[in-house]
Amino acid sequence: MICLWDSQNSWDFSKPREPCGPEPAEAWAALGLSRPPPEARPALHWARREVPPCLPPRVFLPPVLSRHCVHSKASVLGDPAPRGRPQEVEILDAKTREKLCFLDKVEPHATIAEIKNLFTKTHPQWYPARQSLRLDPKGKSLKDEDVLQKLPVGTTATLYFRDLGAQISWVTVFLTEYAGPLFIYLLFYFRVPFIYGHKYDFTSSRHTVVHLACICHSFHYIKRLLETLFVHRFSHGTMPLRNIFKNCTYYWGFAAWMAYYINHPLYTPPTYGAQQVKLALAIFVICQLGNFSIHMALRDLRPAGSKTRKIPYPTKNPFTWLFLLVSCPNYTYEVGSWIGFAIMTQCLPVALFSLVGFTQMTIWAKGKHRSYLKEFRDYPPLRMPIIPFLL
Ligand SMILES: NC(=O)c1ccc[n+]([C@@H]2O[C@H](COP(=O)([O-])OP(=O)(O)OC[C@H]3O[C@@H](n4cnc5c(N)ncnc54)[C@H](OP(=O)(O)O)[C@@H]3O)[C@@H](O)[C@H]2O)c1
Q: Does residue 143's CB lie within 6 angstroms of at least one atom of ligand 1?
């Protein structure tokens, strides 16, 4: 008795797939045949037509040959797993392809989250949040809610594991990132000792704009902290711990740099005085209201406790009408707020912070815009990622 194909060969994702490629010659040779017998050809043709080109290479054995196989596992590789029957799941290291775990009798309706929990039992150092399981070693991570029997796998599902590194909860990340700038800015505002020289300790600026800037800056970060706690409904529970160092350096560093100049005893107020400050304040307030309105609209798209993603549309709130033109109006408003703050304070580090923030948010907005286009066929065509009609 002959086994035609083994699971290692049939699931080599590194090889480019040929949707109508050559027959598995070795398989026919193993049967002592140089080519498929005539009766097998129609079946082969049928089998190939059924394989979408996006799927990884597999062997679909024609029905006529199944009697030659000893191992039913081999003969059905590539066929969808029989509905309702327990499946086997093997987990390989995505880098080394070393087999890390073999799970027997997994329920076909098990989710990836449940498989992660089973994997954790044998490898407690990799708790579920730090696991990424994929169908392809270099492919995208499967979602926790993906169901085994709906994946394009055979009776033995091969999943590839990547360690995402130590994780930390999003809420902790945001609280740390946002509480830092709030606190740091106030140190400079109150001119605590060892910043500007002894004679300025705990003195106060004589310029109104400096006090206004402190109010705006603090308001912005308090708003973000409250939104993190009470508004956003994040779909990911955690993020890699190493990101927090990078993000905190960015937020805390810029806050210190901006605050140092704005609260400096030798700070020069804006060129056009009160008029410039009033205009800037109006931009800042409008953009803050806009940003908050978009966050509320995004929150309302997702029922509590779910991870649903929908196309956001304008609501009755006029601030959300920007959704007609851009995919991420919250970023547009965020950038607008910082431009307002830069005009108000006329301070170079603030302008640089706005520019860096704009660059980063444009990259994210483009990614989110692409995802919307990919996910929703009826996505409004007029929208741009972040700047109406431009970008
Ligand atoms: N100054 C800066 O450098 C800077 C940089 C970045 C962010 N920010 C500020 O921080 C805010 C939040 O940033 P973010 O990157 O987390 O914004 P975001 O990706 O737009 O997400 C905001 C919230 O809405 C959810 N959401 C987004 N699109 C959704 C959809 N189609 N359906 C359902 N829910 C959806 C998100 O959930 P998910 O968890 O699923 O994404 C998240 O909880 C920004 O709006 C901005 O004000 C500032």
A: no
